[in-house]
Structure formats: structure tokens, C-alpha cells
């Protein structure tokens, strides 16, 4: 599993590797539409982007949920120890699928050039429970929490989007189209179109010189999968909220703490129209347990994230057939920063190094006193500074 340790420290992997369609729109998700996005010091433009995907999709093989007891039983099956006498077989096969979607997105570039960084575009993919407001919060203290605002202040451009099924992107089934293969196909399409100069707002010259992929949690899983699938597609990668060792990854605790219920039973108005395959925090306490450090958090930030919280598809919780194939074809430099004593990171450095064993140099950072949702935890800008310093030192 690639989810972060959910204790008082967030494992923040910063991995940098220097290398190198259009369809009919579907209905948008009505859940808390972000509205127009703005960033201090930035020129921002919102988009609704048509995307067509062709994937080999896994077929949900379990009974669909009719009550929250069913959802709880699914989570229990997901997190319990494997048993030869009680098999858990969530898929019944696979099939080739074509899908047409509309993806809500925002592109921001700095109003003033700073060291030429504006031609480096950060393509940010959020994790479960959020939409693009994870990167660009609107009504909470943006100077403390906005990754987009911080990146713009350092001269970088940023492209943020709502993964399908969240925000203003197309509404889909939590049992099928929200699976990893479809998310990956959408991310691939968005990357290629940005590279060609589409949807780049007021970026000087239109085309980026570099694209750096930034992910959080499930977004990091997608980003990792992207560079495994095509090592040349990204000029750099920053993975946050992820770990590569079972000793630092408490997957069962994450979902036990989240207390996930069928989304349209939690808030029928907010999650109207979503099928029973979409799950959401039963209350704010599940959100707090999953994403915040109980010893150090801002209640205003917690309640903001609860207000903008997005449902997650049950099929998103299931690993793909191939598991984690690694990223062994990367040969460019990467970095990990030690922000806490090295002993805190020792258990998870070896498996991460095994996955990226051709990358050099290789460094990581652990952000102290943070929960899994690093962007809304104390000193988030300190983590952002590590990330952007890393990019600058790496020539991006």
C-alpha cells in the first residue's frame, strides 16, 4: 500500500527525476462546486476539459451496497488479514471500455516572472476525500495552506484538476469508472495536452518547458503509476502522503478512523445523484482521524476540509491487478530531505530505494507534527519550501 503513516508524522516522499481527445461532456458532480479559482499574484483560468479514455477496466464482482452495514462489511473485508478460508475476491473479470468525461481544472501562472520558473508547470493530482481545492483553498487562511499560492510566489505555474467523480468533473459510478486505470488514462491525456500548449492560461509562449507531477496520497499512487507506464512523460515528480513500507503504512487504521458511510446517506443534498459505490466521512471526526494530527491542528482548517470534502469510489480502494510495479526505468536525479532524525525514516527508505534504484541522487523528507493531509496541517508552507527549493536546485 502507498498510503502514508497516519501517526503524528507525515511521510513526505519527494522524488524528482530529471528526464524528460475529445468527447461529449457528461453531467458535472454537484458536490460543492469550487467556483472560480484565484491565487494571490497569479493569473488563473478555469477550464472544463473534454477527455476520452480507452481502458481495460476491472469489473466489480461484489454485491453493491444497499445499507451502511454493507459498506462497513466491505471495509472490514478490505483491511482484515488474508484468510484462505474466507476469500476476498472483489473483481469478476475485465473488459475494454471507452469513456467520455469533462474534467474541471484551473491553470495559474505568476503575474511576474521569477528566475524563469513560470515555464515549469506543476501538474497537481489530489487524493481521496478532496477535489482540486486541496491545492487551492478558497475560504480558509490561504497564506498558511495554499500550495498554489506558495508555488506562484516562487515563480512556478500550476495546473490543478478535479479527478473524475469529484468537484466539477463528470459524475461517474463508484463501482466502475472511478478506478485507477481510468484516472491514469485521464492524467496521461491531461499531461500530453498541457505539453502541447493546451489549457495553459496566460503562460508566456503557451507551451511549458517542463512538467513536474505533484501528487498527494491516491494522487501519488496515480503519479507513480504514470511514470512507470511512461518514464519520459514527466520532467519531475513530487510524491506526498505516501510510503513504501508496511511498517510505516497503517492502511487498516486509516479506514477504521475514517468511518466511511454511503455518501448519499451522509448528506442527501450534497451527494445527490451519486450511486451507493461512493463513500464519505460519516462525520467530521472521521475526517480529523484520517487527515489531521490530533496534537496540532487548526479547527478552522478541519471544518473547511469537511465543508469541501468529496466522496471516494469504493473501487478506488482496491489495488490494481498488477500491484506496485516500481519505477526502475528512471535514471535521473532524485532527492529525499531529512527534516527529522534519520531513524524516523529508516524503515521506509530501503523499499523506496528499491523501487527507484536507478535514480540519483535520492532523498526524502518527513514533515513533523503533520497528519496525512499535509496541506492543512501546521507549517504546511515549510513543506512547500522544501519542495520548491528542491525544484530550483534541480534546475526546474
TrEMBL record:
A Pfam entry, by short name:
Abhydrolase_6
Which interval of the chain is the signal sequence? 1-23
The AB hydrolase-1 domain extends over 122-378
Q: Which UniProt keywords apply?
A: Signal
- Its recorded name reads AB hydrolase-1 domain-containing protein
Amino acid at each position: 500500500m502507498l498510503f502514508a503513516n497516519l501517526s503524528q508524522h507525515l511521510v513526505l516522499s519527494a522524488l524528482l527525476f530529471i528526464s524528460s481527445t475529445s468527447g461529449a461532456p457528461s453531467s458535472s458532480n454537484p458536490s460543492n462546486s469550487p467556483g472560480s479559482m484565484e491565487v494571490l499574484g497569479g493569473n488563473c483560468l478555469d477550464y472544463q476539459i473534454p477527455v476520452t479514455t480507452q481502458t481495460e477496466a476491472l469489473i466489480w464482482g461484489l454485491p453493491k451496497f444497499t445499507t451502511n452495514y454493507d459498506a462497513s462489511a466491505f471495509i472490514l473485508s478490505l483491511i482484515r488479514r488474508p484468510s484462505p478460508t474466507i476469500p476476498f475476491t472483489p473483481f469478476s473479470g475485465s473488459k475494454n471500455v471507452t469513456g467520455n468525461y469533462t474534467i474541471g481544472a484551473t491553470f495559474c501562472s505568476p503575474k511576474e516572472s521569477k528566475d524563469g520558473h513560470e515555464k515549469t508547470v506543476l501538474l497537481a493530482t489530489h487524493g481521496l476525500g478532496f477535489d482540486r481545492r486541496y491545492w487551492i483553498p478558497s475560504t480558509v487562511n490561504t497564506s498558511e495552506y495554499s500550495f498554489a499560492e506558495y508555488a506562484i510566489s516562487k515563480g512556478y505555474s500550476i495546473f490543478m484538476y478535479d479527478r473524475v467523480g469529484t468537484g466539477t468533473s463528470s459524475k461517474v459510478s463508484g463501482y466502475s469508472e472511478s478506478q485507477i486505470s481510468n484516472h491514469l488514462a485521464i492524467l496521461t491525456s491531461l499531461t500530453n495536452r498541457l505539453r502541447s500548449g493546451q489549457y495553459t492560461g496566460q503562460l508566456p509562449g503557451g507551451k511549458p518547458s517542463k512538467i513536474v507531477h505533484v501528487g498527494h496520497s491516491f494522487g501519488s499512487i496515480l503519479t507513480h503509476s504514470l511514470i512507470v507506464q511512461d518514464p519520459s512523460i514527466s520532467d519531475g515528480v513530487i510524491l506526498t502522503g505516501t510510503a513504501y513500507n508496511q511498517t510505516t503504512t497503517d492502511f487498516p487504521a486509516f479506514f477504521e478512523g475514517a468511518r466511511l458511510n454511503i455518501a448519499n446517506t451522509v448528506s442527501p443534498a450534497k451527494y445527490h445523484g451519486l450511486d451507493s459505490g461512493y463513500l464519505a466521512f460519516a462525520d467530521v471526526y472521521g475526517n480529523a482521524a484520517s487527515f489531521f494530527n490530533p496534537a496540532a491542528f487548526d479547527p478552522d482548517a478541519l471544518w473547511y476540509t469537511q465543508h469541501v470534502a468529496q466522496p471516494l469510489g469504493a473501487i478506488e480502494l482496491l489495488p490494481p491487478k498488477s500491484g506496485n510495479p516500481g519505477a526502475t526505468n528512471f535514471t535521473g536525479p532524485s532527492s529525499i530531505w531529512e527534516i527529522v532524525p534519520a531513524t524516523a525514516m529508516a524503515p521506509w527508505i530501503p523499499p523506496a530505494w528499491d523501487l527507484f534504484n536507478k535514480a540519483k541522487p535520492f532523498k526524502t523528507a518527513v514533515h513533523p507534527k503533520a497528519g496525512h493531509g499535509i496541506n492543512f496541517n501546521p507549517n504546511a508552507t515549510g513543506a512547500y519550501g522544501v519542495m520548491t527549493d528542491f525544484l530550483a536546485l534541480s534546475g526546474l
